[in-house]
Write a structure and sequence with these properties.
The protein is mainly alpha-helical. The chain starts with a helix and ends with a helix.
Length: 113
């Protein structure tokens, strides 16, 4: 019977650990959400645009270049930059320049380019 008790104790400890970990994760998510809410939307969106730029650049820089994946990232970036235009705020011109540059790199690496 003491063996059953030990197994139960171990399960209880594991459940407590899981609950503690879950509480910590929830606290981290809440903190992250608060930071995002405090940031200007233009900054967060611009960061995502640059993430798409980096994704496109990574695929263009692979050997051989993954043009299909690069195209998807570049097109998504274009939708944001061109679709939002001046709503991107102070970084609008920088985002337009970055889009033009990555598009040029794509054309340069394309077999039909």
């Amino acid at each position: 019977m003491s063996d059953d008790y030990d197994v139960t104790d171990e399960r209880d400890e594991a459940e407590e650990l899981d609950e503690d970990q879950l509480a910590e994760i929830e606290a981290q998510i809440s903190e992250s959400n608060a930071r995002i809410a405090a940031a200007q939307a233009e900054v967060v969106v611009t960061n995502h645009v640059m993430g798409l730029f980096q994704l496109g650049a990574i695929h263009l820089g692979s050997t051989p270049p993954d043009l299909r994946s690069a195209s998807l990232a570049i097109d998504a970036m274009g939708l944001l930059v061109e679709g939002l235009g001046e709503r991107l705020g102070d970084e609008t011109d920088t985002m337009r320049d970055a889009l033009a540059n990555i598009r040029m790199a794509f054309v340069t690496l394309s077999p039909n380019g």
